[in-house]
């Protein structure tokens, strides 16, 4: 059983967390967004092998945060609370 | 040298000390140029190479595999072959695969041990019975064999199931596809490899792609750990690693890579002669010819390239299995592993030309790639040979994500992810 760290609650069982998506995938702004740009936002992913930066939610407390981890060895580097500047 | 496998050749070789067999496939040094390159020595890649040679007469082909053939998801699945999907486009592609599987041993002169023992998908509530009726109706309308099973029918094919009235997931009945079954997964890889090699395809193992050669905006070949290899038609069928290769080629895919686990018990005498799937517990199970109970379940919920799998999902799968088959609590698990699967938002595959011209992709099969191997190979070979879609692959083009014309089998046939 792996422990993930919630910035609010501390280390908790991995089953309490849900993957939310890749960090930095910003919603396109404006009324004239092309279909390709929408598809890119909605569907296209970097899906990196190795170091990654992701949005996760701790389902027990509802905290959304950024987790930096490795997709091959599953080592977690950091958990960072998500402020308004990160994902505006 | 003995080339063809038959009872007679086995008998003759037995008399001759088994010394006359030729290797199942050649292992040549890579040439500098080919007419086509196929990246990925799993079932889909090997089938692509085979059908390029057999269906289209293109035999100057290199198949490049970074490890050993059949060592990825082709050797890590639970070997189930079925075609119980919902949308007509999906039925067309999975039934193409299913029908090719039915003739594959004869086509390849290699016994892939297809066993059409049937599959029952259980229903645990009145609501699930209604959904099962909808699925069975859709399958029948699309020309696929399917029938509704009463609880007595289920008891007839799988008497060890938990029919207790106080079961957590009581069994009310289910659906049945009699043509479904299992095939020997390694034999599928080896049979296609042997067939392709005999038609002239060079199968090159331990050959990892380091970069693509891009000239004039088109893909012209690959740099590999065994040198530079050029071709003007390149196909890739690398499942969970599709995003990694796409990044080298300069584009992104609508793919997330997850670990999908499976495990087997110690071998026991025959006790289960069908495939059983329970959407309620998320578990599917069959018994291998060696006697092992082969167990599969849901995806790990953590994006991953680690071919191991995590403990909570394994616990959940085993708990579901024991709810379905309480007697299996006596069994010991012998092996557990995971493969990295390429999960797409609409749970349908992606087949077509990539954003990099000359590079064609076959990916996105997610948790269901093994059953689709003959179709994936046929359709990618058609694209490589003609540059155009086969009618069956056209709906699965990457362009569907921009047009919004998705094929949502997650909703259609209730795929768990």
Automatic annotation (TrEMBL), chain A:
Domain of life (superkingdom): Bacteria
Gene Ontology terms: biological process: tetrahydrofolate metabolic process
GO molecular function terms noted in the UniProt entry: sarcosine oxidase activity
Pfam families, sorted: SoxD
The name this protein goes by in its record: Sarcosine oxidase subunit delta
Automatic annotation (TrEMBL), chain B:
InterPro entries with a match to the protein in the record: FAD-dep_OxRdtase, FAD/NAD-bd_sf, Rhodanese-like_dom, SoxB
Keyword Cytoplasm: yes
UniProt keyword annotations, A-Z: Cytoplasm, FAD, Flavoprotein, FMN, Nucleotide-binding, Oxidoreductase
PROSITE patterns in the record: RHODANESE_3
One Gene Ontology biological process: tetrahydrofolate metabolic process
Keyword set includes Transmembrane: no
EC number: 1.5.3.24
Catalytic activity line of the entry: sarcosine + O2 + H2O = formaldehyde + glycine + H2O2; sarcosine + (6S)-5,6,7,8-tetrahydrofolate + O2 = (6R)-5,10-methylene-5,6,7,8-tetrahydrofolate + glycine + H2O2
UniProt main location, coarse: cytoplasm
GO molecular function: nucleotide binding; sarcosine oxidase activity
This protein's GO CC annotations: cytoplasm
Cofactor: FAD; FMN
Name of one Pfam family that matches: DAO
Residues of the Rhodanese domain: 37-80
Localization (cell): Cytoplasm
Entry's family note: Belongs to the SoxB family.
Cited NCBIfam families: soxB (TIGR01373)
Name listed for the protein in its UniProt record: Sarcosine oxidase subunit beta
Species of the source: Pseudaminobacter soli
């Amino acid at each position: 059983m792996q422990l993930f760290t919630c910035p609010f609650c501390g280390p908790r069982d991995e089953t309490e967390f849900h993957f939310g998506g890749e960090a930095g995938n910003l919603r396109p702004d404006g009324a004239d967004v092309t279909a390709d740009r929408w598809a890119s936002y909605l569907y296209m992913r970097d899906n990196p092998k190795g170091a990654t930066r992701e949005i996760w939610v701790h389902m027990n407390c509802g905290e959304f945060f950024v987790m930096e981890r490795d997709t091959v060895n599953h080592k977690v580097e950091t958990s960072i609370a998500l402020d308004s500047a990160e994902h505006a | 040298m003995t080339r063809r496998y038959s009872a007679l050749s086995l008998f003759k070789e037995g008399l001759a000390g088994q010394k006359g067999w030729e290797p199942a496939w050649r292992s040549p040094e890579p040439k500098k140029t080919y007419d086509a390159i196929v990246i990925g020595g799993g079932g889909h890649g090997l089938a692509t190479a085979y059908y390029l040679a057999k269906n289209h007469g293109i035999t100057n082909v290199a198949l490049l595999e970074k490890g050993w053939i059949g060592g990825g998801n082709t050797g890590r699945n639970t070997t189930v072959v079925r075609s119980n999907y919902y949308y007509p486009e999906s039925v067309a592609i999975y039934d193409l695969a299913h029908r090719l599987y039915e003739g594959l041993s004869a086509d390849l002169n290699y016994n892939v041990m297809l066993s059409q023992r049937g599959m029952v998908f259980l229903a645990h509530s009145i609501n699930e019975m209604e959904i099962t009726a909808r699925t069975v109706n859709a399958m029948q309308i699309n020309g696929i064999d399917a029938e509704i099973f009463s609880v007595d029918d289920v008891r007839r094919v799988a008497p060890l199931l938990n029919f207790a009235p106080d079961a957590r997931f009581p069994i009310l009945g289910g659906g049945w596809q009699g043509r479904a079954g299992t095939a020997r997964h390694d034999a599928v890889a080896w049979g296609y490899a042997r067939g392709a090699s005999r038609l002239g395809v060079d199968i090159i193992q331990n050959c990892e792609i380091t970069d693509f050669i891009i000239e004039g905006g088109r893909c012209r070949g690959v740099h590999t750990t065994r040198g530079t290899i050029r071709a003007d038609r390149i196909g890739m069928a690398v499942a969970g690693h599709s995003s990694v290769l796409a990044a080298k080629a300069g584009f992104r895919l609508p793919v997330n890579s997850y670990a999908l686990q499976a495990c087997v018990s110690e071998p026991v005498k025959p006790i289960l002669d069908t495939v059983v799937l329970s959407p309620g517990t998320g578990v599917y199970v069959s018994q291998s010819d060696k006697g092992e109970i082969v167990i599969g379940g849901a995806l790990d919920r953590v994006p991953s390239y680690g071919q191991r799998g995590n403990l909570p999902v394994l616990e959940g799968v085993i708990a579901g299995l024991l709810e379905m088959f309480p007697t299996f609590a006596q069994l010991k698990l012998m092996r557990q592993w995971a493969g990295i699967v390429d999960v797409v938002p609409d749970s349908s595959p992606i087949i077509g030309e990539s954003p990099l011209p000359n590079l064609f992709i076959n990916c996105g099969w997610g948790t269901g790639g093994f059953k689709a191997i003959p179709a994936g190979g046929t359709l990618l070979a058609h694209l490589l040979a003609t540059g155009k879609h086969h009618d069956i692959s056209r709906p699965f083009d990457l362009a569907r994500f921009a047009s919004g014309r998705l094929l949502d089998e997650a909703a259609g046939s209730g795929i768990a992810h």
